[in-house]
Amino acid sequence: MMIEKNSYYKQILEEIYRILCENFPDINCEKGSLEDKVLAEDVLKTLKRFIEEYNSYKEQLEGYSLTLEAHLEELSQTYEELSTMFTVSKILSRDINPYELMQDFLNAILNSIPSESAGVLLFHNENEEFFTTDDNPKWQEILNFTRKLFENSRKDVIISEPGDTAFEGIKNFISIPITSNEKIWGYMVLFNKLNGDFYIAADRKILESAAMQLGFSLQNYDYIRKEIERQRLREQLNIAKNIQTSLLPREFPSNDYFEIYAKTLPAIFVGGDYYDIVERNDGNYLIAFADVSGKSVPAALLMSSIRTIVRNFGNYTDEILDFVHRVNRMITNDTPIDQFTTMVLMLLDVKKMKIEVCNAGHNPVIILEKKNGSKKIEATGIPFGIIANFEYETVTLNLGKGDTIFMYTDGISEARNINGEEFGHDRILTILNNVKSKSSKEIVEEIIEEVTKFSKGMNQHDDITAMAIKIF
To answer: Which of 225, 284, 362, 410 is most buried (CB neighbours < 10 A)?
Structure first.
């Protein structure tokens, strides 16, 4: 009976040993009978190795899990920041006067970072204005503290550590300066965070971004208000012209890779043509070139909103198509139904020397190649501001040394002479081929000069705007 049991156990050990040998190829398992092997020792040795490898694999999985959780948390924080920035931008673009929007602004902040209360204290000359989400009596001490910050021109962010606040009933708070161009407009303060013992770095990042946008809005509004005060007797259109001019770049980038130049001649005091060049954090450039429908103040206000979107959010996406769709949705949702914008959005990769372009209902983008003639990037979608969920497309092109990118508005192609003839695309292309070896500034000036000569004796019916990008 004992012999049968031993034989049975041996069969089991042999089967286990066989399975281990099949699954661990590097084990030196001799073929043939296992009668002479010390099965128990071999099996034990192999099982120990299996357990060691299993534990090592388990530790790796735990490490991967922790890394994944960290990435997910970072993505969640980034999403929250972007969501808050878009919400704040949408609020501030509704009215040129940010003071009228402060309640909605603060509610958006509290929705992102739940706290007992949030407030903004603004200073203007000898006056101050305080906006808050509620009439909490705890504000009195904090306001006195904030006034001292302003008296000392403090521009640093202040975050209380757990338990170090001396304000009665305040367990934690954060103070963010609201600035633009070195000017302190005031401070944004939140206290008693509802879902944590203290304000974290992610909260600070969101609040700093919101304060930056508010600072820009206050600066724009202050500029307009001062213009109105200084030029009260001048016509509204003349004032608005100055506003529009301030929205366009005064200087253009020029480096070892490329140079850019653009110019606009408005048909009336305030035109609807717009362009901008934004250097991104990755060293590439986001270029916007647009024709806003309408004239006068409504066109200038829409230009201002577009400029805010382009400058504030151009850094927060690696995919230009995502940015295109966000821009279209914001313009569609925030502008009257009768306003729209034709626009070219272009991402210029300066090191790879390529462009990714979305043409939303605008005139074709002309690519003048140094050796192979010219190409056109036609519109692949309707103008922005018509259908919020329209699906746009982009075109990617590689560039070569000596190539030139040229963009223009209807004021050039549709300019008429005394015989009623239009300047036209073909005439533009002919001139460009004759001057493509010149600098970007010379190319733009040459086109505008030819249009002016062509339409001499006729009223300028639309804005004349052109941009040239010369690749080195």
So the answer is: 362
Say if CB 274 and CB 307 are below 8 A apart.
Answer: yes
Backbone angles phi and psi of 128, in degrees to 5: -140, 150
Cβ pair 119, 139 in contact under 8 A: yes
Mean pLDDT by 10 residues, the chain (472 residues): 58 70 61 48 68 75 67 59 79 88 92 92 90 90 90 89 73 92 92 87 89 92 81 61 78 93 78 88 93 75 84 79 92 84 94 94 95 91 95 95 95 92 95 94 97 89 92 92
pTM: 0.54
Whole-number Å distance between alpha carbons of 110 and 117: 8
Nearest-angstrom CA–CA distance, 154 and 334: 35
Q: State in words which class domain 251-471 has.
A: alpha beta
Collapsing DSSP states into helix, strand and coil, what is residue 375? strand
C-alpha of 330 from chain center: 13
Name the residue among 441, 430, 450, 413 with its Cα closest to residue 373.
430
In 218-340, where do the E strands start and end? Answer: 258-265, 273-279, 285-292
Decide if 28 contacts 17 (C-beta within 8 A). no
Class of domain 95-228: alpha beta
Q: For tokens 């249009």, what's the residue?
A: 451
Q: Give the distance from CA 290 to its chain's centroid.
A: 18
